[in-house]
Amino acid sequence: VFDCKFSPDGQHFACTDSHGHLLLFGFGCNKYYEKIPDQMFFHTDYRPLIRDANNYVLDEQTQQAPHLMPPPFLVDVDGNPHPTRFQRLVPGRENCKDEQLIPQLGYVANGDGEVVEQVIGQQTNDQDESILDGMIRELQREQDLRLINEGETLPNPPLNRSHSVNGG
């Protein structure tokens, strides 16, 4: 069991495990839960993470901070995407068009020069920067200014984490 959460009223709780099982316990009918697939994973589950020179955690394939990555796709245990009606269950994908809910795979070079399979086209050009992205950028700027004012040098210039490796 990886995680367990109780409902606010204490009458239900849910658990997840490493096999993609979601166990729901409580009172009531289970008709709604019978309609979802047996196996549901995010396509980014089990991806390796690395630390950059500033000690930030990054997704190894995309070189992006995990919280700045687009919402992941729901897949089965073999990595096959679920139909679009299930992709809309992922927060951030509720109002996407059908064509945005189908993963488009491409190949990009990672930081080590290796070519890896990558989901491309996850973000549209008309998406605004999230409030969280702006807050993180501002906190980083303030920290950099504080370090400079204290006479310390920055190890590396701050990275722009809002863009993917391939310049998108």
TrEMBL record:
One of its GO terms (cellular component) is nucleus. Transmembrane segments: none annotated. Residues 159-168 have a biased composition (Polar residues). Signal peptide: none annotated. GO terms for biological process: cytoskeleton organization; regulation of cell shape; regulation of transcription by RNA polymerase II. Residues 149-168 are annotated as: Disordered. PANTHER family: BROMODOMAIN AND WD REPEAT-CONTAINING PROTEIN 3, WD REPEAT DOMAIN 9. This is BRWD3 protein. The lineage of its organism: Eukaryota, Metazoa, Chordata, Craniata, Vertebrata.
